[in-house]
Structures are given as C-alpha cells and as structure tokens.
Amino acid sequence: MALSKSMHARNRYKDKPPDFAYLASKYPDFQQHVQINLNGRVSLNFKDPEAVRALTCTLLREDFGLSIDIPLERLIPTVPLRLNYIHWVEDLIGHQDSDRSTLRRGIDIGTGASCIYPLLGTTLNGWYFLATEVDDMCFNYAKKNVEQNNLSDLIKVVKVPQKTLLMDALKEESEIIYDFCMCNPPFFANQLEAKGVNSRNPRRPPPSSVNTGGITEIMAEGGELEFVKRIIHDSLQLQKRLRWYSCMLGKKCSLAPLKEELRIQGEESPQLCREVPKVTYTEFCQGRTMRWALAWSFYDDVTVPVSRDLPLASLNSSTWWVLVGHK
C-alpha cells in the first residue's frame, strides 16, 4: 500500500494527489519549476527550495483560496502533512460532530512564517487562533499572511520572548478556555543532528526533499524531546485552560519517553496526583515522509480518537501506552 493511502481519511490529497500538469498550466509561477520528461511526465525537484515553496503557495491558492509569502530562509511547510494534523485536531475536539456555530479556539506554538496551521484551521473550520512566534522574520511574515487573507479577526499573531511556550503566552488571557494547542517543535538538538550525522538509520533512504528553516524552527536545546517536555510542564500548570494539548514529532522514538514524562509528572503534580487522564497518539503519512503526534487532556469527559497506524505488537513492551478509555 502506498504511504499516501495512510493519510487521514479526510485529507483531500489522500486519493487525489496534486496534478502538477494542471497546476503548471494555470499558475506561471509554478510552471517555471516543473520538469517534463520524454514521456510527457511532469515532475518537481523537491530538493529545490524555490520549487517546494512554489508548490506550497500554489496548493494553498488553488485548494484553499489562500495567498501567502514565505522567505526561503525559513521553514517551507508541505500542505498535505499540515492538513493531516488539522484533521487530527478536528477528531480530538469532536469538530465533525459539533455545532458549527460554536467558536473553537486554538493555540499554535511557533506558527512560523507561513502561519499555515491557523490559516488552514480558520479557512476550513472557522476556528480562532492565538499564534505565537519568537523569530522576528517569521512573526512579520505570519502577520502579513494573515492580513493579506483578511483573517485578522480570527487569527492573532503575537511576538513572544525566546523559550516562551504556553504559560507566558496566556498571561493576558486568563479567562479564556482554549480547545486545543498545536505545535511543530524544532526536531534537532544541534547542527550535526540537523545534518543527519549520527542520528539517521544508515538503512533508511535519504530525504527526498530539501530541509529549510531558521535556527529557532529546526533546533532547540535538547531537540524535540526537551521542547515537548517543557510544554508538558506548562500543561501541568495550566491543566484545564486547554481541553487538548498536542505536538507533532519528527521521531517515533520520542513517543515513549514523552508518554513516560506525562505519567511521572502527572503522578508527582500536587494539583493532579495521578496519571494524566487522557493520552493518545497518531501517525501522519504523506509520500515518503512520516511524522507522529501526541496529545493529552486533563478532562475526563473528552472523547479520545482511536490511535491509528501504530501496531502495538511492534512497540517496546515496557513503553507506557494510554489507550482509548484509560482513566
């Protein structure tokens, strides 16, 4: 089975991948980056950052009516992957079953220059977003992208100090209960890891796409593991200020220690004194790219989506896995 078949069921690209030939015929900015072989097959060089940027901007324009600008010096998101995460958040908060007139509120931690999660979530579902950013260039581009799509009423982009995650960002909004937070954390701990030195399985094929991104987007002290642990620590202070906390992960091996961190910190927390009530996980598949996501909630009454695509038989038996209905 092709990996695309494992995309989220509602992902528009699951059964209908982008038609490069059609997009090239309609958008001159995209056409200059496509290649046509002797058999007439149209392809794109995913190792060319300008080509990747052109594809992202073209898909957002064609399929979602969004116009954005992204600097080559910052992270260029892929639309199918980000859409998978949005759809999973829909599952977490029960968006498909809820009254659409109810305003859902989310937080995007480190929104990036594209501001893609808030733009997609607002365009598809009418969600309200608080989008935080520490990098000056990313903040300026994100704010511009929101404004040029006339979504300033639903997306608030805020510049926050370095290392600010949730606690400081919510100081001025003490009365608001958010439905969820999202985060695409920096995956790497240092330059060597970012380049794949000593961190990549030698049997694994090399990346099929270029790796772009500023320092704050791709690297953090301790990598994604320590970054998400800080979000966990913030969540134990905030608890029911958000109904769901979630993070995307670049490494499957990060899941087990993060779930163990939730267990330990929950039991040691004076406010909680027990395991975090609800924890779930999922796997995002798109092309040759695999990502994982972890979500947790301090509400006993939330419905936990079925954890998908991670065969339990393949997991280390010592790993702490909380499944649907665990209290």
From TrEMBL:
- Keyword Nucleus carried by entry: yes
This chain is encoded by the gene named: METTL16
This chain's source organism reads Physeter macrocephalus
Quaternary structure (record):
Interacts with MEPCE. Interacts with LARP7.
Give the UniProt family note. Answer: Belongs to the methyltransferase superfamily. METTL16/RlmF family.
Which residues bind S-adenosyl-L-methionine per the record? R82, G110, E133, N184
Q: Where in the cell is it found?
A: Cytoplasm; Nucleus
SUPFAM superfamilies, alphabetized: S-adenosyl-L-methionine-dependent methyltransferases
In its UniProt record, a GO molecular function of this protein is: U6 snRNA (adenine-(43)-N(6))-methyltransferase activity
Alphabetical list of CDD domains matching this protein: AdoMet_MTases
Name the chain's protein. U6 small nuclear RNA (adenine-(43)-N(6))-methyltransferase
Question: Out of the domains of life, which is the source?
Answer: Eukaryota
The UniProt keywords, alphabetically, are: Cytoplasm, Methyltransferase, Nucleus, RNA-binding, S-adenosyl-L-methionine, Transferase
EC class: transferase
A GO cellular component term found in this entry reads:
nucleus
What are its E.C. numbers? Answer: 2.1.1.-
The UniProt entry, under PANTHER family, shows: RNA N6-ADENOSINE-METHYLTRANSFERASE METTL16, SAM-DEPENDENT METHYLTRANSFERASE
Q: What is its main location?
A: cytoplasm
The coiled-coil segments of this chain are none
One GO process term, biological-process aspect: mRNA processing
The record's function comment reads: RNA N6-methyltransferase that methylates adenosine residues at the N(6) position of a subset of RNAs and is involved in S-adenosyl-L-methionine homeostasis by regulating expression of MAT2A transcripts. Able to N6-methylate a subset of mRNAs and U6 small nuclear RNAs (U6 snRNAs). In contrast to the METTL3-METTL14 heterodimer, only able to methylate a limited number of RNAs: requires both a 5'UACAGAGAA-3' nonamer sequence and a specific RNA structure.
Please name the taxonomic classification of the source: Eukaryota, Metazoa, Chordata, Craniata, Vertebrata
